[in-house]
Design a protein that fits this description.
Helices cover about 40% and strands about 20% of the residues. The protein is of the alpha/beta class. It folds into 2 domains: about 170 residues, NAD(P)-binding Rossmann-like Domain (Rossmann fold, 3-Layer(aba) Sandwich); about 160 residues, Dihydrodipicolinate Reductase, domain 2 (2-Layer Sandwich), CATH 3.30.360. It has a 6-stranded mixed sheet with strand order 3-2-1-4-5-6, with helices on both faces. The structure holds NADP nicotinamide-adenine-dinucleotide phosphate (NAP).
Length: about 325
């Protein structure tokens, strides 16, 4: 299986390492022989149709800050050129999530689908802004589109709702889908001011380069869009979400909630409408997780409410979700 990898940052590199360390096992257990044939970052590209050497690729990135130094001659093929010209079966999109125009990920994904490639995306931007049309494009071109890592990192939230609860009708759900704001709110519950809690989260590397994605609820809203489309069959995008972030929460609000045995959490909910906003949650509710954890409670017609909890991000965790998607694509495409 030939793969083009768009982006070689935290997730891209973790995925490449995982492919290398799991190669024998992937073949023995799943008959899967993945081959990275093209990788690019903002600096340039590395291409080898017979398969790139992953250790060499990681060394090039580490030593020269770009994969373009993979071979003697620098490769300046652009991402778009690679997606439009290189032969591969699967494209994996791991460039930054952007909620203004979803680029460059959106172009990578649409061009790959038009060329008949299956697509895996951990980039939430294209799904948040164009989920319904991307699904249509995938169906039209008869390719598979998977995105397990966009919600919950390595925690299989989408798989759980779609597959483990199959046959059920999920009527609503509420989730803590952004670990950074949960970390800040947890610190505030322990007495820190908003500014100190934000500073601590930044120091630990939890906050996005554009802090607004976390603090103003954009990241949580993007995940809500993905869940609403995939799980509930809605056809919605970012503008359909009512969104309030956590910037206005102060220590008095937190204390008031604590007096009622509750905690303030940034909750993404899908019931009569789609909303991201800070809400008081009882501390004995399984949804009320601390620190960077994510949690989501699905309420279904017959089996009541179930909560799934796990780490919502992390390079290796998210890379493992890409591997899950790859195995799924291999299984589905060999059925056809
Ligand atoms: N990190 C996580 O835990 C996590 C979890 C779930 C989902 N995600 C999503 O996964 C994606 C990747 O996350 P990450 O943490 O790996 O980000 P990252 O470390 O910033 O990596 C992004 C990569 O994309 C490349 N890139 C960005 N713009 C590009 C462009 N125009 N052309 C070519 N390459 C470009 C960057 O190139 P340079 O290396 O040259 O800068 C970098 O290699 C994001 O969309 C994120 O929201 C991340």
């Amino acid at each position: 299986m030939r793969i083009i990898l768009c982006g070689f940052g935290t997730v891209g590199q973790s995925f490449a390492k995982l492919l290398e360390s799991r190669s024998e096992d992937l073949y023995a257990r799943y008959g899967l022989k993945p081959r990275l044939v093209g990788v690019f970052d903002t600096g340039g590209s590395a291409i080898d149709s017979s398969g790139l050497n992953i250790s060499k690729l990681i060394d090039a990135k580490k030593n020269h800050n770009s994969v373009k130094k993979y071979s003697e001659t620098e490769n300046n093929t652009s991402g778009t050129e690679m997606v439009n010209e290189l032969e591969a079966e699967v494209l994996i999109e791991t460039t930054q999530s952007n909620y203004n125009d979803a680029e460059p990920g959106l172009t990578h994904i649409t061009n790959a689908m038009k060329r008949g490639m299956h697509v895996i995306s951990v980039n939430k931007g294209p799904l948040a802004l164009a989920f319904p049309s991307l699904m249509e494009l995938a169906n039209y071109n008869q390719v598979l589109f998977r995105f397990s890592g966009t919600v919950g990192g390595g925690t299989p939230i989408l798989d759980f709702a779609k597959n483990s609860l199959r046959g059920e009708r999920i009527v609503s759900f509420d989730g803590i889908l952004n670990g950074t704001t949960n970390y800040i709110l947890t610190n505030m519950a322990n007495g820190m001011s908003f500014d100190d809690a934000l500073g601590d989260a930044k120091q630990k590397g939890y906050v996005e380069a554009d802090e607004s994605l976390d603090l103003d609820g954009l990241d949580a809203a993007a995940k809500l869009v993905i869940l609403a489309n995939w799980i509930m069959g809605m056809k919605v995008t970012m503008p359909d979400i009512k969104r309030t972030g956590i910037r206005k929460i102060n220590n008095d609000d937190i204390k008031r909630a604590a007096g009622k045995n509750s905690a303030i959490k940034l909750i993404a909910s899908c019931d009569k409408e789609l909303v991201v906003e800070p809400k008081e949650i009882a501390t004995d509710d399984p949804l009320c997780v601390s620190g960077t954890l994510n949690a989501i409670s699905f309420t279904s017609e017959h089996s009541g409410t179930q909560t799934i909890i796990g780490r919502g991000a992390g390079g290796t965790e998210t890379a493992s979700s890409i591997l899950r998607d790859l195995i799924d694509i291999r299984n589905e495409s060999t059925k056809a």
